[in-house]
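ok trying this again, last paste got cut off
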Amino acid sequence: MSSYQFKEHDEEGLHTLEAISQAHHFNAWMFEQVQPFMNGRILEIGSGIGNISQYFIDAKSDIVLSDIREEYCNALHQKFPENKVLLLDLVHPDFYNVYSHLLGSFDSCFAMNVIEHIEDDHLAMKNLVSLLKVGGKVLILVPAGPFLYNDIDRGLFHFRRYTTSMMNQLFQSAPLLIEKQWMFNALGIPAWFFGGKIMKKKEVEGNQMDVYDKLIPIARFLDWITFRKIGLSIIALATKR
């Protein structure tokens, strides 16, 4: 496990979010992973600059956006002035008092590429679940495969990459009842390995993402023929007990 100091201005993360923002086929594919399971009042954890938020807003979903960084919250306010945006820290030391008005108020919640940035991920999940109504749905996407951990992970301040057993432990301690798990984006594995292990890059670059976005039809097909058993990411869906 790595150790990082929180930075309000996350330069590497911002560059990566900006690169991914132009990958419309990839973002649409990501949206398809989460949208079918979200209903009612939705909370997005770690909205960043709104790459996935845009799809929910275009679909007229009742969604509340959030991020831990004021910089991103301000950007979200400007981009989506009619949507509610929260400054939300899942491991705030006084979480239940600071966010008492939000406890048990959401029907569904999702966090995509967020939990790996939090050192105490078990505490983060317990606090996240407290924001859901009983029976509420939560979907989490995290990077998979500890063996793939490389300079890009370090540059993006990832504390870890996950296995399915790690995800099971994380969800069961929340407590959540896991409904299903699947792997996502098998084609991304060689790209991540080459960029971080061989080229020693510390962030995802725009030109790389442009090329990869053109390969999404192949990536979709590869996930289909591997029965979503192999992937760069793990996705888990669960219900609050």
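PB: full thing came through this time. Strands lie at 42-45, 63-67, 85-87, 106-112, 132-143, 176-184, 233-240.
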